[in-house]
Inverse folding.
């Protein structure tokens, strides 16, 4: 596996691969790899001849007071894991190369970014869309893979790809969970033992919601469901709801009743320090992402 630190070197290598007719798959990440990331890399391995993983803690997607300065980072550790996962190129650029002095352009996806995480993180998805657009232009991949835990992010990227005519295919990978159900996330590393135990309220909420939908059948009022889920979370020590919403899986607009296309998305703050997200389809299917187009 090759570690590449500059855009020039990256461009040189991917251009050569393209001219040899190789299919290039990209997995964008911010590092501190866990099994969730490794599954995305494995999926890319199965669909592409060359796998590029980007590792860049993107400063413009963090808001004031968020965890940019403490986000976990260990390049040697991640290099070893990526190499084992069969990655061909790990692209780990410096922030000054991605955002040189004078940088002033932003990509904005309007409607999909208003609710859910966008409500409490107003600049987040603009930062994500901007860096992902830059990565697509730099790597020129034929396909890119994102995790479904960040469901809204995936929806925003799909929309951006359609709207800006990026010529690549986007794939979602189902949420990868720990054996007790906690969705894998680099931010789980912030949790102490007790918080880790309490963080299971996210998965408990999801299971509860699925059972409630199964029992209630169609036309369950969303408030009935979300009130119960909020109660589960807010009565767990140290845990507070940021949001619990049932939305249409394509438009991300809130639903009044649980419907065929409904999904539940939630964000929980633990000890006002760690913010975790999770989601589920409510029709009891595993995957929450529409078929790849
Ligand atoms: O999901 C992430 O790790 C990041 O938001 C991404 C897509 C790599 C953009 O910085």
């Amino acid at each position: 596996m090759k570690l590449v630190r500059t855009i020039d070197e990256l461009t040189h290598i991917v251009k050569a691969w393209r001219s040899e007719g190789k299919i290039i798959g990209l997995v964008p990440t911010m590092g501190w790899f866990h099994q969730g990331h490794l599954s995305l890399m494995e999926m890319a391995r199965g669909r592409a001849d060359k796998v590029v993983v980007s590792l860049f803690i993107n400063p413009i997607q963090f808001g004031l007071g968020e965890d940019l300065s403490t986000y976990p980072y260990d390049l040697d550790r991640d290099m070893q894991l990526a190499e084992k996962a069969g990655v061909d190129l790990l692209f780990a650029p410096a922030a000054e190369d991605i955002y040189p002095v004078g940088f002033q352009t932003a990509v904005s996806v309007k409607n999909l970014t208003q609710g859910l995480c966008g409500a409490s993180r107003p600049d987040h998805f603009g930062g994500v869309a901007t860096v992902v657009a830059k990565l697509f232009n730099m790597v020129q991949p034929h396909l890119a893979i994102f995790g479904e835990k960040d469901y809204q992010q995936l929806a925003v990227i799909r929309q951006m790809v359609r709207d800006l005519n990026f010529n690549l295919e986007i794939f979602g990978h189902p949420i990868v969970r720990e054996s007790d159900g906690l969705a894998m996330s680099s931010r789980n590393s912030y949790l102490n033992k007790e918080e880790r135990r309490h963080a299971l309220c996210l998965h408990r909420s999801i299971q509860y919601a699925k059972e409630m939908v199964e029992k209630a059948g169609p036309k369950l009022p969303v408030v009935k469901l979300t009130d119960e889920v909020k109660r589960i979370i807010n009565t767990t020590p140290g845990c507070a709801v940021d949001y619990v919403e049932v939305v249409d899986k394509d438009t991300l607009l809130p639903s009044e009743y649980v419907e065929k296309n409904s999904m539940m998305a939630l964000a929980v703050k633990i000890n006002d320090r760690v913010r975790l997200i999770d989601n589920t389809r409510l029709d009891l299917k595993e995957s929450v992402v529409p078929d790849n187009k």
Q: What stands out?
A: The CA atoms of residues 129 and 174 lie 21 Å apart. The chain has two domains: 2-176, 186-281. The radius of gyration is 19 Å.
